[in-house]
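haha ok so turns out i had the wrong file open the whole time. this is the CORRECT one, sorry everyone. sequence first:
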Amino acid sequence: MITVPNCKGESFRRRRPAPAARRGALVALLALGLGGCSISMPLPSFFGDDDVTGSIKPKSAALASAYDSSDWSVAKPVLAASLRPAAPAEPAAWSNVETGHRGEFLAVAGTFARDGRSCRVFIARIVAGESKTLQGVGCPSDDGEVAVYDVSPWTGL
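then structure:
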């Protein structure tokens, strides 16, 4: 208890708040103060509105860009089959009757691991008006997708 005199010189006793009440008030004050940290609001981009986001996809675009979309839908399963470890080292041909384009894939080496997948080096020949030969690394998955890496024009032996 604290003795505090008033303006007439009389004293009265004032009680201090109990420690539990002070702690409760402190917790409530902290909760109110920190509650503003949980408010979310959208912030604009620092780099403009043309930001592109999304999940990372396998790198098949380098090889797929050499094909028409309907050609790639015909060629991709043939590439996946030719890259399987048990596939023979013979050219695997594909042909798209809609566009008249055709080509073949040839796996030229044994399998090796890349990014936890079984991969093979291949050569792709595409005939779509003009003939184009490319080389790359392909990694087929069990669901029929193919991750393609390091595609470049074929330089020969």
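The chain has a mean pLDDT of 76.
again sry for the mixup
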